[in-house]
Amino acid sequence: MGTTSSDSSIGTTTSDGTVVTDPTPSREGPGSTVRTLQHILLQKGDDKICALAAITLQKLVTQPVVWAEEHLLFPEPRIRSWVSGGARRARGAEQGRALVESMRDLHKSSVLGSKHGSLMSWRPQYRSSKFRNVYGKVASREHCFDGIPITKNVHDNHFCAVNARFLAIVTESAGGGSFLVIPLEQTGRIEPNYPKVCGHQGNVLDIKWNPFIENIIASCSEDTSVRIWEIPEGGLKRNMTEAVLELYGHSRRVGLVEWHPTTNNILFSAGYDYKVLIWNLDIGEPVKMIDCHTDVILCMSFNTDGSLLATTCKDKKLRVVEPRSGRVLQEASCKNHRVNRVVFLGSTKRLLTTGVSRWNTRQIALWDQEDLSMPLIEEEIDGLSGLLFPFYDADTHMLYLAGKGDGNIRYYEIGSEKPYLSYLMEFRSPAPQKGLGVMPKHGLDVSACEVFRFYKLVTLKGLIEPISMIVPRRSETYQEDIYPMTPGTEPALTPDEWLSGVNRDPILMSLKEGYKKTSKIVFKAPVREKKSVVVNGIDLLENVPPRTENELLRMFFRQQDEIRRLKDELSQKDIRIRQLQLELKNLRNSPKNN
């Protein structure tokens, strides 16, 4: 055996040049993280694990690291599990040794900040943020909504919508689609026979509340229709089957609906016919059509003033569209990042997309809305398969990522300079989520320093679970630094103004005095003249052909009843005809006529 010499930065080196690292690296402090990753890199083993460990090690050197009191949170969540598992037993890789040497050079130039040249003394650079300690608080069981038959539809939507007064959830039902509308104060167990909105003839795929009229909700369905419903003040007392407005314009099922963020009564709908229709509800007709997509539209998102619309499509393209003209301003072909969801990041002129990388790992990408040629950053999240739902809070500049099928919600802070995206913390729950509803800002509890609230759909339990994101503060006074002026409930434009080309920022409101209903806007359904297209004596608009199996069965049974009724009516008329013929014969043969 050769002699050995000690090297505090990477382990022990024997006389024949073999590097022996400590098999149980210290787990105390950020320096132990560097040593743990060195331990992985300097063992011979799987190149993929070593390469990802090298990426993480480089991030630890060049970017701040986020700490929790209990344990260290790595920038790459996948690395965390690999470090604690089989990755620690990996054998050496050449690129790891080269990286350690480069880290020594960085250290000598004081990047790591130690005059003795030891990597053990590396310390993270803390980034100041008022939201680094935000935590998630789950409501107690009595403040949840229990006993709800949540839909089992596999469509990638949230199936939930919430505002300051009502919670709406798409439910499982036979013979057409339906959804529940529950007042927020009516928590606890919901009765099985609770009234529903059940006018659709196919499964309901999406629902959205009007941001300016709190009792108006839009829904879309597999029956190709979009319907507008007006919920009574105290909630539903009986099943609602008649919508105040039915909108037909798509030739296939409608998967998405979105209200314009600053204009009242302008609604967007996206169908499986690859078209986006813009509806003016003042007249109940489509006024514009966006026809630039070549496949199914997966997501729609507006910028702050509603002058731009971002869409993701099944053709793997991200588009930024001018909605009134339908002109595509920017388009990205995402080869390394298969996009699913997109969200505008407030007034930062940036977009964030979630999707899947070429290695089938969940991934996010940040884009400049004026140049989609290359993403500003791409970050892999984890190796799970569920869809990532992004939510952005423009008031706090916080981004939330929630995975479909898992119970975790990660949150980040968005910055204007590199690295743009700073990891804050992660809310964890064992119960998987099917979708999430989000409370508008004016419905939050400002006295508890609540900055965001989710309504989590737990299908296995039939449960809707509120989750409050809270900034811990000792003072009970109003915290102006976390509650700036926020978009309110008053529209900034009328439909005619917006259609003429006017753009206007949303009207802001303060949350200091708490939310008070001040809007006096009332939805008035347009009175439309009945149109008809008659071919061979059949009104084609009145007798719309069936589009789903359920609708076909209902039409079949309806026609059977109609045939039975007509047969009875015909039989009665035959009897009446014979009676009249007999009377006529008797009249002719009477003596008076002779």
UniProtKB/TrEMBL annotation:
Entry-linked InterPro entries: Coronin (IPR015505), DUF1899 (IPR015048), WD40/YVTN_repeat-like_dom_sf (IPR015943), WD40_repeat_CS (IPR019775), WD40_repeat_dom_sf (IPR036322), WD40_rpt (IPR001680)
A UniProt-annotated Pfam family: WD40
Single GO term (MF): actin binding
Keyword Repeat: yes
Top-rank taxon, per record: Eukaryota
Coiled-coil positions: 563-590
Official protein name in the record: Coronin
Lineage: Eukaryota, Metazoa, Chordata, Craniata, Vertebrata
